[in-house]
Specification:
The chain has about 160 residues and is of the alpha+beta class. It has helices at about 10-35, 45-65, and strands spanning about 70-75, 80-85, 95-100, 105-110, 120, 130-135, 145-150, 155. A hairpin with a 3-residue loop joins strand 1 (about 70-75) and strand 2. The chain is elongated.
Length: about 160
Amino acid sequence: MTDVKKSWFKQFWPWFLIGLPMVAVVGSINLLMTALDNKPDMVVDDYYTEGKAINNDFALLNKAKELNISALIKQTDEELLISLQGVEDKSSISFSLYHSTLAKRDISVMLTADASGNYHFENTQNLTGKWKLRIEPFDKSWRLQKTITLPRETFKL
């Protein structure tokens, strides 16, 4: 009986022992590339200024309550129909939708009233999930704001 020794590169165990660390290296590189491509959007650089702005937000929200301003919003497949109550001046409004986690999906537009006093926002993207909806007049004298989950047929601010 002849005892033939195989070369090391023809045996299973050396390749198995080399393969385990290589799988870890490839997985680490993949995880690093994923982390670099998907940076978080919610980090704020100037916390002090943001904190001061919150007080301003409360003042504008309270002003809308004092003036008894509200909005009724109806969602269809193609648009959001905004109807404001308690507003004398039906000039343009700032309509903003802020996505809860993805800043690139945020929307902010100026809308003007139609002949019946309603505002129309046409959907250009799929509006699903959790959003912060904000309505302000052109002069920013008051603000309506609410966190909503879309799609939804009708909701009130």
